[in-house]
Amino acid sequence: MKKVFTALLLCAVTVFAYAQTGAVSGMLTDGDTGEPIFGATIAIKGLAKGAITDFDGSFTITDVLAGPQTVIFSYTGYESQEIPVEVVSGETTSIGKVVCRSSAIGLTEVKVIASVAISRQTPVAVSTVGAKQIEAKIGSQEFPEILKSTPGVYATKEGGGFGDGRINVRGFSSENVAVLINGVPVNDMENGIVYWSNWAGLTDATSFMQVQRGLGASKVAVPSIGGTINILSKAT
Question: Does domain 2-100 have CATH number 3.40.190.80?
Fold first, then answer.
């Protein structure tokens, strides 16, 4: 008899607890376009309850304690919102359509710092090609071919594909020539080859480039035995 009474009591408590919960539903949309926002996080403040919006921006959070609650809306690129709601026991409370406004995320300024050789001051053999010279020489050539008139440099097309090129400095192939863009090496880490076809559009972005002929020292691991090609991009 005691066991039966205990079982009935547990069932009654469970039913009572279930009856004290409800659900919250709604839809999240973009404030500028009116389109639904997919993948936004919806949570009940102070409770371990939440949901993710569907493709149509809708969501439903179940088993929420009845009474006054606060629904928190958050998504990357949008302002977070908190909306109070009264959850009714045993019912689904709809908060309707919620409009989220986009938020501007400020990023810190990025400065490109690179060292360059100064003509007649740096004790190395250096040639500098400016943006105007690049524009005048490029034509239908590949980017490395701009340097073929530079002393000690041989450059030509290679492979026949768009952007494919080969460059030699003082007889050394590209595997032994360091190529830097704003001081960052672009040689392949395994074989030292430079895949110029990966750098389409570099012509328009280059401020000037310098070719140092001969062995050079570097703070990074680059194969600068034959020389170094340093490409500096435009600020804007």
Answer: no
Closest C-alpha to 54, from 34, 39, 33: 39
pLDDT in the model for residue 59: 94
- Domain ranges, ordered by start, for the chain: 2-100, 125-233
Beta sheet of 21-30, edge-to-edge order? 58-65, 21-30, 92-100
> What 8-state DSSP symbol labels residue 30?
E
pLDDT tens digits for 115-162? 555 555 555 677 788 888 877 777 777 777 777 778 888 887 776 666
In angstroms, rounded to a whole number, what is the distance separating the alpha carbons of residues 117 and 30? 51
Claim: this prediction has a pTM higher than 0.70:
no
CATH of 125-233, one of 3.30.420.40, 3.30.870.10, 3.40.50.300, 2.170.130.10: 2.170.130.10
Nearest CA to 154 among 229, 50, 234? 229
Q: How many angstroms separate the Cα of 215 from the Cα of each of 16, 24, 212, 227?
A: 83, 70, 8, 6
Q: Do 44 and 71 meet the contact criterion of CB atoms below 8 Å apart?
A: yes
If one compares 131 and 54, the residue with the highest pLDDT of the two is 54
Question: Are 127 and 101 in contact, with CB atoms under 8 Å apart?
Answer: no
